[in-house]
Design goal:
Blueprint: E1 5-10, E2 13-18, H1 28-43, E3 49-53, E4 58-60, H2 77-86, E5 91-95, E6 98-100, H3 102-108, E7 112-115, E8 120-122, H4 136-143, H5 146-155, E9 159-160, H6 161-167, E10 172-173, H7 178-186, H8 206-220, H9 226-239, H10 242-257, H11 260-274, E11 293-296, H12 300-311, E12 316-319, H13 323-342, H14 348-357, E13 358-361, E14 372-375, H15 381-394, E15 400-403, H16 410-414, E16 423-428, E17 437-441, H17 448-460, E18 464-468, H18 474-493, H19 497-507, H20 513-520, H21 522-535, H22 544-550, E19 563-564, E20 573-574, H23 576-588, H24 598-618, H25 625-635, H26 645-652, H27 654-665, H28 677-685
Parallel strand pairs: 2-3, 3-5, 4-6, 5-7, 6-8, 7-10, 11-12, 11-14, 12-13, 14-15, 15-16, 17-18
Antiparallel strand pairs: 1-2, 8-9, 16-17, 19-20
The structure holds nicotinamide-adenine-dinucleotide.
Amino acid sequence: MSDVAHYAVRDGIAVITMNNPPVNGLGNALRAELMASLRKAEGDPTVKGAVIIGSAKAFSGGADIREFGKPREKPDLFEVNDQQDAMTKPLVAAIGGFALGGGLELALGCHYRVAAPRSQLGLPEVKLGILPGSGGTQRLPRIIPMADAVRMMTTGNTIPAEKAKDLGLVDEIVVGDLLEGAIKFLQQDRSIRRIRDMKAKLNGDPEAFFAQVRDKVAKESRGYPAPLEIVACAAAAATLPFDEGRKVERERFQRLVNTVESKALRHMFFAERQTSKIPDVPEDTPVRPVNKAAVIGAGTMGGGIAMCFANAGIPVALVDTTQEALDKGIQRIKGNYAATVEKGRLTQDDMDKRMALISPKADLKEIKGADLVVEAVFERMDVKQDLFRKLDALMQPGAILATNTSTLDVDEIAAATKRPADVVGTHFFSPANVMRLLEVVRGRNTAKDVLATTMKLGKTLKKLPVVSGVCDGFIGNRMLEKYVQQSLFLLEEGATPAQVDSALQRWGMAMGPFAMYDMAGNDIGWEIRKRRAKERPDMVYAKVADLICEKGWFGQKAGRGWYRYEKGSRKPIPDEEVERILSDYRKEIGVKPRKIADDEIIERCIFALANEGARILEEGIALRASDIDMVYLTGYGFPPYRGGPMFYADQVGLDKVLASIRRFQDGYQGSQWTVAPLLARLAKEGKRFNS
Ligand code: NAD
C-alpha cells in the first residue's frame, strides 16, 4: 500500500486510515487507495464491517483544489461513492477534526458517521463559487432536514459535531479513542443504511418551500451564481430519483467551475495562502516571543490596534502624552466593545477581560518591558523620529519597534535608532479592530526574524499580513492615488460624484470613491496633496478636490462633502451645489463637459490600479501579483468575484488593458498615464500578472 492510506483488520473490522497530510486532501492517489481498500474489505470474508478514519486534526479537508480544471485521474470521488454504496458490509466514517467538502461527501457515502467532540462538518464549496459535486447536494437533504441542508450548503458554514448529532448527520459522539469507539459502534450489528435509498427530509409542498428559499437565497447571494444553483440541486433531491438528481448536480457543477466568479474565488483562496511565503525568509525562521505589547498614541488607530492585542489575549499598554487623550482613547475602546456586547456578539464577561488587558499609561517609561511596540502617533516625521529615539534608549534589547505610518519613509524612521534591524512597519487599516488587512513594511534593514515575527503576530491578531517594501503609500495607498486621480479627472471632464460612485459600485466595489472620501475625511487627502505639491511641484493633480476642502466640506464628520448628509445619517445625498462648483470649475479651466459612459469610468479607475500595481510588482515592492490582489480584496472593498485588480486585468487580457491605456493617453490629462514597462512586456508576450 502507498503511504497516503493504510489498511488493517482489527477484530473483524477493516480499518482504512487516510494519511495524506496536512488535511487528507482527496487527491488522485488517496482516492485510488480508498477504492482499493473498500474492495479489499468487501472481498475479505473475515471482515464484517469497515471504518474510514483520518487524523485527529482532519478526517478530510475535501478535494485537492490544485487538481481543479486539470484532468482527473480515475477513480473520481463519484466512483468511490458508488463503491461505498455497493458495499454489503456496514461502513462507518470516524470523524476527528474536520470533514469538509469532498471529505464530508465521503462520510455521507458511508452508512454511518461517528465523530469526536468538537469536530466540525461542512460543505464550504459555495465559498469557492461552486457546489458540492460528489452527491453532497443529494445526500445531505436525505439525512438532515432540507432547510438545514440548504442553509449549510448555501452559506458554506460548518457545524459542530454536537449540532450534527442533533440533526441526524452524526449517529454517535465518541468521547475518548475515536477508532475504538467506531469499531465498537460497528460491532453492534449494524444494518446497511444507504443514504441514496432514503427520501429527502422535506415536509409539505416542495414547490412552495423552494419558491420561498429561492427568494431568500437570491437576496443573500448578491449576484453570485453558486447559491441558487445549490438550491436547484436541493430541489432535485426532493423531487427526482437519486441518480437523476446526481446528474443535475454534475451539470450545474461543471457550469459553475468555469465561471469567472469561481475562478476569482479560487484565485483568492490560493492568494491568501501565498502571502505568508517570503522567498528569503524560510518558514522555520525562529520568531521572537511577543507576550507583552505596547501601543503609543491612543487616537483613532492606536485604540483600534490596542483592541486587536486584547482580542488576541495579549496584554497591551496604551500610551499617550496627556491623561485627557488617554481617557478619551479608553472611553472610545469601551464604547466599541459595549456596542459589540449590545449586538450580542461579545459577552460582558469577555469585554471585561479584554478591557483588563489594556492598561493606560501616561508615562512612556512604563512600557520598558514590552516585547513589541506599535507607534501610532501624529503623521509627522519629526514627531515619529523623536519618539523612536526615545524608544531606542528605553526598550530592552530585542524588542520590536513597529510604526503604523501610512505615508512616511520607514527607513528614515528606523535611522533615528541605533537598531534599524528591529524596526518594521505595521500598517493597519481603519477601523483597525475590524479591517483584516495588515501591510507589513519591510525596511531596508529589517531583520528576517523581525519580519517573520511580525507576520506571525499579524495572524495571531487575526489579520491578513501582506509584505510591502518601502515606498510612498506602500502597496495599497500608492495604487489608490492613481484611482483617486482618475476619479477626480472624470469629474473635471463632466461626470458627477454620484455617477462615478454608482458605476463602480454596480461593478462591485463595496463603496464608490466619493462616498469613501467623505467617510475617511477629505482633509486627509488635502494634507497629502499639499505635501506632494511641495515635494513634486511638477505633479498634476485635480484641483477640484481642493475647492470642496476650502469650504470645510470634509465629509461625513462635517455633515457635508462630495455629498450632503442629513443629521445623524450616513446616507450620501447628491448635492446640487457641488455640481455647480464643478460646472463653474470646468468653465474656468476651459473644459467642455462630455457624457462619460460607465464602462469608461470603470476602465479608467480599475486599470489605473493595475498599471500602478505592475510598477509596484516590478520594483519588488510587492512579492507577487496575488499579494496586490489580496491587499485590494481585504483592505479596499474590491469585489471578491473580480479576484483583485491584477487578476481582473489578467481576465480582461493585458493586451486589451494596454490598448485602453494607450487610448487614455490621447484623452484628458493623458500625460498622466504612463504604461508600466512590466504591463507592456507581459502584454506583448501574451502573459499574465498572475502566472
Ligand atoms: P490621531 O490623531 O487620531 O491619534 C494620534 C494620537 O497620538 C493622539 O491621541 C496624540 O495625542 C498621540 N500622540 C501624538 N504624539 C505623541 C507622542 N509623542 N507620544 C504619545 N502619543 C502621542 O491619529 P490616527 O488617525 O490614529 O493616526 C495615527 C497614525 O496612524 C498616523 O501615523 C497615521 O498616518 C496612521 N494611520 C492612520 C489611518 C487612519 O485612517 N486614520 C490609517 C492607517 C494609518
